[in-house]
Amino acid sequence: MMSIALPIPPAAPALGLWQRLGVTLYRHPGLQLGLLLGLPLLWFLVVYIGSLATLLVQSFFTFDDFTMEVSRELTLANYQQLLQPANFDVVLRTLSMASAVTLASAVLAFPLAYYMVRYARGWKKGFFYVAVMLPMWASYIVKVYAWTVLLAKDGIVYWAYQHLGLGGVVDWLMTIPLLGGNSLTTSHLGRFAVFTYIWLPFMILPIQAALERVPLGLMQASSDLGASGAQTFRHVILPLAFPGVVAGSIFTFSLTLGDYIIPQIIGPSGLFIGSMVYTMQGSIGNMPLAAAFTVVPVVIIALYLTGARKLGAFDAL
Amino acid sequence: MSIAVQFQQVSRHYDSVRAVDDISLDIAEGEFFSMLGPSGSGKTTSLRLIAGFEQPSSGSLRIFGQEAAGLPPNLRAVNTVFQDYALFPHMNVLDNVAYGLMLKGVTKSERHRRAEEMLEMVKLGQYGSRRPSALSGGQRQRVALARALILQPRVLLLDEPLGALDLKLREQMQTELKTLQRQLGITFVFVTHDQGEAMSMSDRVAVFNKGRIEQVAAPQVLYNQPATAFVADFVGAANVFDGELASTLVGHAQSFAVRPERIRPAGQLADDDVVRVPGKLLDIQYLGAVSRYEVEVSGHKVVSMVLPNENGNATAPAEIGAALTLAWPSHAMLPLAG
């Protein structure tokens, strides 16, 4: 048997200034929350919500075509203008492009994200993270202009297709209405490819994060109960990762809806919502119509989210 | 009786780690069979080999005579109750239970009717419309059981299913599982690290250690005739005396074990055929019905002795720190192989 003597600790010392501050915060959780949230919440309310509200109000202001001046008289004329064929075409064109880009991004992103989560280990995992994010570090404008060179008639894409004997296929694709154009650079297809290229990382990362939270055990349970790989995907993986797909699609969808640079540089003529807003407020000064155009994506995304929620996309959250 | 699951020299290696190392084992149909061992002993890997989540690196694994190596889990006639239950969080309880039938294309009304029946069986009839997250651990456990049993498997695999439950609930579920197994008459393969659990429920127990099987036997045989020091120590409490200490104490080099409850203070045992060992009392632990006495013998070996408490009162045979001679009948010594 051993006997051990421990030194007796001295009486508790008086609290320092920081410790007293800590005690005050500990006793007043409300104060703590206020310190934590006050500034960011103010910033959020004024800069984000406030500007959106201003935008909404402006979309009801009156624009005088002759004097080119905005008056604060409230009107629905801007929204009626949206429905005019020329303007409605802009909305439809942007909307269909945004849908196509979102769909393609999801189809491309899911397998990649799945591989990153389930199979990539060690340096491979790191490599994929960096590889997905790396393109986002480069300048957006540089990337888009680079694509004009790549897609040009004497560019590397045509060169590659010609050498693969697929030149005819590209020429045939260019004759299809709604897809084609004079060359890839001036076609909807080319614009679609560049949009998908630019926004794909914004789809991969949320899906990857969602898949990361699907326990492997659930997939094993599914297959244990008799599910084939496809059935497990359909009934377990997809429903559980769907919030990630929705999150990613909000990025790709709204980023495409609001973009005004790619439509100017790649693809056929014809305005997008973004370029329309740019023209309306920049060259013409018709802020109310620009505001009305800006409300369109907000409404569409809101409808999209409501629909997704109705379909149960967020049940797994 | 036919053989439900048969391991023939099965190994499972991960790089250089032998998770399961050359195991041969027959599990009979209708048996409650437990795989017992500490963590990392290979018991769970063996279960996952049967389920199909792991493939053997070598050897043959047969389920009802059919070679299972290479078959994916969905093509095996076994179902699993997982340690963490693995209930689908985006489905309600009823759809969780009906999942296997849905995959088979059973109509919605039919599979829901049968799922209701299964929920009745596990006494959760009212809970079909709830989400798994709204259930307690014990209820999730029952849902997992119902979900696995609805497919009427001939072998049910249970991977430490009671590990997350508190003691009372665990004991209750042990009784229910045993009753259920008897009613259904199907083979249960039950993985646990809790020797008491394995002993109380099983027809036979395989004791795993370091990827190998130390002994396969009925609980009573494991307790009374442990094949190795590991089994003696792991199944119930045991004082293991290795060869060197054995020669010092009893004069032969054969390792042996003595259960704590077989040891008495020397004065309480008659003289004939008794081994006596002098020692020093180190500590007394009061455990209610019994008390455990830690006694140091031969200078360094700590031996446990368990004595019943008369009327719930511990009557110490000596003061802590005082000399105490222990004794046990020679036939209480369990000879050990390794």
TrEMBL record, chain A:
InterPro entries: MetI-like, MetI-like_sf
Protein's name according to its UniProt entry: Spermidine/putrescine ABC transporter permease
Keywords: Cell membrane, Membrane, Transmembrane, Transmembrane helix, Transport
Domain ABC transmembrane type-1: 91-306
Signal peptide: none
Lineage: Bacteria, Pseudomonadati, Pseudomonadota, Betaproteobacteria, Neisseriales
Source superkingdom: Bacteria
CDD domains listed in its UniProt record: TM_PBP2
Predominant cellular place of this UniProt entry's protein: membrane
Transmembrane segments: 35-61, 95-115, 127-147, 159-180, 192-211, 231-253, 260-278, 284-305
Similarity section: Belongs to the binding-protein-dependent transport system permease family. CysTW subfamily.
Automatic annotation (TrEMBL), chain B:
Pfam families (UniProt xref): ABC_tran, TOBE_2
Superkingdom, natural source: Bacteria
Segments forming domain ABC transporter: 5-235
GO molecular function: ATP binding
Keywords from the named record: ATP-binding, Cell membrane, Membrane, Nucleotide-binding, Transport
Protein name: ABC transporter ATP-binding protein
UniProt organism field: Vogesella alkaliphila
